[in-house]
Design goal:
Layout: H1 18-21, H2 23-40, E1 48-51, E2 57-63, E3 86-92, E4 97-104, H3 105-110, H4 116-143, E5 156-159, H5 168-184, E6 193-196, H6 198-206, E7 219-220, E8 225-226, E9 228-229, E10 232-236, E11 244-245, E12 257-258, E13 262-267, E14 272-284, H7 287-293, E15 295-308, E16 314-318
Helix pairs in contact: 2-4, 5-6
């Protein structure tokens, strides 16, 4: 009588083909990639998103403001009609972004450690890093943009001087200025976030009035944390661009700009949008590839694009004077 073997890679011990023998191994790997992507995707859910099932782009429609007038006896209501401006923003899908790794069977067998989980983590981190970088650049470009509806304000750039990069009091003052600018442009307080690099974050903590409860501050000097400035949550963010970014092949939206003087970003959920044709997806090579290469190829990928929606909802703080 043949012995029974529990095949841990198969579903309900259904075996016979390469795909059946390794079905669960693939699913574990995919889950690790997606977990790593979510954990590393710091701007996940920070802006508007739209999922599409087909097509190359998505259209966002937005409107201007209406005005109210007092009605006087003898007036006609249609004499007080509003002519509300309407504009659109079309966000294109960028080319397919991938991160791949090939694992040689014999190397994996010789290794005294489990390699797939670490490799899968790095695939997820690579995609998350690129996505966050695009979102940050788009939000900064929003701060520099004019509004497609001429009657509405554009973005805001606050030139706080070189010391904003090292002096927490100067940065705090710039954040108050950003909050004031948003208030004056009727940007909702809900959904505001300030993104600062670690050096700027800790400069805010070390400027004690920012966390001193006697001043209404929130945070902890001992823990090195700060919660809010001017009512805006502070997010430590290591992916603010600091280079002169140029366009690369595969980008179908505008992400390029000189960000060498960027010190901080204050933005709102409505500032930019993302269109997803394909969310994070995972593939593993099949048996034909494995026979030829004696390796497993793993590919993590997504297809999405980002664009400016409401420039008045974004503020850039720079080291320029």
């Amino acid at each position: 009588m043949a012995s029974l073997i529990s095949r841990i890679g198969s579903i309900n011990n259904t075996t016979g083909t390469y795909a059946q023998d390794n079905a669960l191994f693939l699913k574990v790997f995919s889950g690790e990639v997606m977990a790593a992507f979510d954990e590393s995707h710091l701007m996940k859910g920070a802006f508007r998103e739209r999922n599409i099932t087909s097509g190359k782009s998505a259209q966002f429609i937005y409107t201007g403001k209406a005005t109210a007038k007092y009605f006087q006896p003898g007036d006609r209501t249609d004499d007080n009609e509003n002519q509300i401006p309407v504009a659109e923003q079309t966000i294109l899908i960028d080319d397919l972004l991938i991160a791949a790794v090939k694992v040689y069977d014999l190397d994996e067998m010789k290794a005294h450690y489990e390699v797939r989980s670490e490799f899968s983590k790095q695939l997820g981190v690579a995609l998350a890093r690129e996505c966050d970088n695009k979102l940050a650049r788009t939000a900064l470009l929003a701060a520099r943009a004019t509004n497609k509806i001429p009657s509405l304000p554009g973005g805001t750039v606050i030139n706080a001087g070189a010391t904003v990069a090292t002096d927490g009091n100067v940065l705090a003052a710039a954040l108050f200025q950003a909050a004031q600018s948003m208030d004056e442009k009727d940007v909702p307080e809900e959904g505001r976030v300030a993104y600062v690099r670690p050096a700027q974050y800790y400069s805010l903590v070390k400027a004690l009035p920012n966390i001193n409860t006697d001043w209404g501050g929130s945070g902890s000097f001992s823990d090195g944390t700060i919660m809010k400035i001017a009512g805006i949550p502070i997010q430590k963010y290591n992916r603010l661009p600091s280079n002169n970014a140029t366009a690369v092949a595969g980008e179908n939206n505008a992400y390029s700009g000189d960000f060498t003087s960027t010190a901080a970003l204050v933005t709102n959920t409505q500032a930019i949008g993302t269109v997803k044709l394909m969310d994070l997806n995972m593939e593993q090579s099949g048996s034909d590839y494995h026979i030829v290469h004696q390796s497993h190829l793993f590919v993590a990928k997504y297809a999405m694009g980002h664009g400016v929606l409401r420039p008045e909802c974004s503020v850039e703080i720079t080291t320029n004077a």
